Amino acid sequence: MTxxxxxxxxxxxNPAVFNRLADRLIGPFAVLTALxxxxxxxxxxxxxxPDYQQGETIRxxxxxxxxxxxxxxxxxxxxxxxxxxxxxxxxxxxxAQKCAAPLGAGFTLLCLVTxxxxxxxxxxxxxxxxxxxxxxxxxxxxxxxxIALQQAIEEPNRAGRAVAILTLVGAVNLPIIKFSVDWWSxxxxxxxxxxxxxxxxxxxxxxxxxxxxxxxxxxxxxxxMLFMRAEVMNRRAERLELLAAEAE
Length: 248
Hints:
8 helices
């Protein structure tokens, strides 16, 4: 880690500095999110052609795949925040992890629902207990467990450490999700975008898919900054109330 990067992280450790940065970025990010979704959805429904096998149902892909990517991306980010809490004791790492968990759970639920809607016409069943689907369901349950643990412990520092440990334990599931279609025989198709020999999806579909993925990412960053700013202000208010009570 360079000195410049370390200095930036140390500055962001100050909640007031983070709030000022968030205030400047939330508005532009929100506008960018809306523009990307308009562009991506237009491409998904009016530019991308129907699939020669799946027909119009292929359009579920433009929601399902980005939500699946985001579900894993958010959990990976939470794992880094967990290391920041346990090793570097970065004061904003706990805030980021707490605020990311419900967003990750939302992306994972969207992935499961759209996967079920896509699976019914393709496989003839709403659900199949294969390796990919089951491991994603396990990740959703881990997200719920993280949120529940956060709510169960009132003291923020203790809650942050406990949640960080649970998050790192649950990170074992990430490679299982990624490689499940390679390790086991499943109904779920293998990777078709991030492959050593290049994507197998036609460019007319791949372009809108990438745009939707970026739209989901910017949406996540916008909501994360909103939630983190609210959490910082809430913790500040709680500290002021505590100091006022002690003074009385």
